[in-house]
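Hi team, as promised in this morning's meeting, here are the two structures we talked about. I've kept the exact order from the run log so nobody has to guess. The first one is mostly here for context; it's the second one we should focus on when we meet again. Sequence first, then the predicted structure tokens.
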Amino acid sequence: MPSVSPPLKGRTILDCSTLLPGPRIGKLLAQKGARVLKIESPSKPDRAKTLGPFYDDLNSGKEIIQLEFGKGSVGSYAEGRTRFEKLVREADGLIEGFRPETKAKLGLDAATLHAINPKLCIVSLVGYPEDD
């Protein structure tokens, strides 16, 4: 029987989410063959690290990248933003779960992301009302 390639092989997903739901989706996509890059702020680590083994389990199979890219970030914002935009340009999808105002501040809103990569599929896990 011929081997079957994983369905998402060759796809790249940026996981900018924290805690549990977004990282879980990223893990499932990695299990389906996608290359998943978890982008974390070195100055504001994912709070899931405080939940025992959950962080390691949810992020197994992902590449972890420490990157400051949001407006007003500490550290080298310009360098981080340039690297982030390059990743967005080359990605197929992005996962985020921030409040609308945080999304805009970080440049994770659809208008900003689609200006960089019009074909980017964005998964927004939001439990907050959006006004736009």
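And here is the second protein, the one for discussion:
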Amino acid sequence: MKIIEKEIKDIDLNELSSLINTDEFTEYFLDKDREHYHLLAYLSTKFDNELIIDLGTHRGTSALALSYNKTNKVITYDVREFRGGIVHNINDIPENIKWKIKNIMDDDAFSDRENLLKSKLIFLDTAHEGDFEYD
């Protein structure tokens, strides 16, 4: 896959940014130079009708960027639900995002772990301590 910087910067996240309920996170989401959201949206355009996994939802902005290509399905996981980054009203979350509040490594998450093997893209943004990433 060839990644082209101009194409990344041409990604328009304004429509999706309207779902974010804080000015601070909207500013991060729209930042083309320092943040990763345009890259995630761009990567989503490289696949059609595929499964994308987001591990480490936190406030939901990475899942939102990954949902940019509406033909893909995004399943996003976190171990706890946050309020404040993205509006958690189901009517405001794009239809191609499925939210799961669970640890994908738990014993009851076997089918979820199988989705990892099926997905075309996995975005891993978790505790940043190395243990989870290794597992």
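Starting points for discussion:
The first strand starts at residue 51 and ends at 55.
The two ends are 26 Å apart (CA to CA).
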